[in-house]
Write a structure and sequence with these properties.
single chain; alpha/beta; 4-stranded mixed beta sheet; 17 strands; about 40% helix; about 20% strand; globular; binds pyridoxal-5'-phosphate
Length: about 400
């Protein structure tokens, strides 16, 4: 901690906890204290820690080849792309390393799609309260002034509308719109699901104005909502043109991806986009293993997500300062009328890791392997902390 204070850029406000290792759904600090991990490295460690099948493929692949670059083929990008295409209902994949990078690639895709139609067709519609990453492009479409203010002026042509405001969405779309980016469940913004009506209208308007609809599933996708992707929750499914995701797909090895339909894919020609690290053999092989395991876990995600949601509602009923419980599957938020930070710190002392977003929303991103007993344990710690709130 002392060295970090002296030598690291002071951009993080870390919790006072030094983690040493993890096993299953628990992590341990350097003094050996155990914590139930209900934040999973912000939605990354979906199989908990040191999952035996993941450890095995990492060991095996590390001894064979970690990185090869995109100059050459390797055995795992093709099969993984096929798998993601089958999961998504779309047709082509690009691999990168992070959520931000996948958003960045999707924005380039939308801009190139627009530009091929008209030089004026370059606007991107996004939502207020959204979060899409910290690069200049991703920040430009992030609808939270606190992240953007210090870096203005950003990319021109970003327009923001309030989530679930159909009239504002209709007013924002024009023939200058190249694309629209949405989180079907806003994560950093405080776990806010979009309504089916709003998503359907976004699809309709994107079609009418020949713009690309981009679903940012970095936090709300890849199994977490109890379906492969959050857009698959609605019936009928509202299929985006482009899906971007990252976080859990390679269990902590950095891997992001973009999945597109043929129309969006046609915007990117040879040489227009690329990456050195993205889609390496280690990350892709781990992702294939993860997706194999995910299929078996899907009913559990739905069951445990439902159980946790019910238990949180029960807590909400007992405490008037709990405003609302929101989310789907294993992406749940509890909005309070009081600040959440102290509750997070006190729960940590009691062996539970979660975090707080937007000052008043307790955020839970438990591992997909969570058990009923662990949910009970988390609810017990929360109940104890809630009882102390004045
Ligand atoms: C919806 C969404 N998009 C993009 C990002 C950025 O992802 P990364 O931090 O992997 O670059 C995040 C990160 O939390 C996110 O929640």
């Amino acid at each position: 901690m002392d060295l970090e204070r002296d030598y690291l850029l002071q951009n993080y406000a870390r919790y006072p906890l030094v983690l040493a290792r993890g096993k299953g759904n628990y992590v341990y600090d350097i003094e050996g204290r155990r914590y139930l991990d209900f934040i999973t490295g912000i939605g990354v460690n979906a199989l908990g820690h040191a999952h035996p099948r993941i450890v095995k493929v990492i060991r095996d692949q590390a001894a064979q080849m970690v990185h090869s670059s995109n100059l050459y083929y390797h055995q795992y990008q093709g099969p993984l792309a096929k798998r993601l295409v089958e999961m998504s209902g779309l047709t082509r994949v690009f691999f990168c390393n992070t959520g931000t990078e996948s958003v960045e690639g999707a924005l380039k895709m939308a801009k190139a799609h627009g530009r091929a139609i008209s030089p004026e067709k370059s606007e991107i519609i996004s939502l207020e309260n959204s979060f899409h990453g910290r690069s200049i492009g991703a920040l430009s479409v992030t609808g939270q002034p606190k992240y953007r203010a210090d870096f203005e002026p950003l990319m021109p042509g970003a327009r923001f509308v309030p989530a679930n405001d159909v009239a504002a969405l209709e007013a924002a779309f024009t023939d200058r719109t190249a694309g629209m980016i949405v989180e079907l469940i806003q994560g950093e913004g405080g776990i806010y699901p979009l309504t089916h009506e709003f998503a359907a209208k976004a699809r309709e308007l994107a079609d009418r104005h020949n713009a690309l609809l981009i679903a940012d599933e970095t936090q709300c996708g890849v199994g977490r909502p109890g379906t492969y992707f959050a857009y698959q929750r609605s019936a009928p499914v509202i299929l985006p043109d482009v899906v971007v995701a990252a976080k859990p797909v390679a269990c902590g090895i950095p891997l992001g991806f973009i999945i597109t339909n043929d129309k969006a894919a046609a915007a990117i020609k040879p040489g227009m986009h690329g990456t050195t690290f993205g889609g390496g053999p280690l990350a892709c092989r781990v992702a294939l293993e993860f997706l194999d395991i995910l299929d078996g876990l899907m009913p559990e995600i739905q069951k445990m997500g439902g159980y946790f949601h019910v238990e949180l509602n029960e807590l909400a009923r007992k405490h008037s300062f709990v405003k609302e419980v929101r989310g789907f599957g294993l992406m749940l938020g509890v909005e309070l009328t009081v600040p959440g930070k102290q509750i997070v710190l006190d729960a940590m002392k009691d062996g539970l890791l979660m975090n707080c977003t937007h000052d008043t929303v307790l955020r839970f991103l438990p591992p997909y392997t969570v058990t009923e007993k662990e949910v009970d344990q988390a609810v017990k710690v929360l109940g104890k902390q809630f009882a102390k709130v004045k």
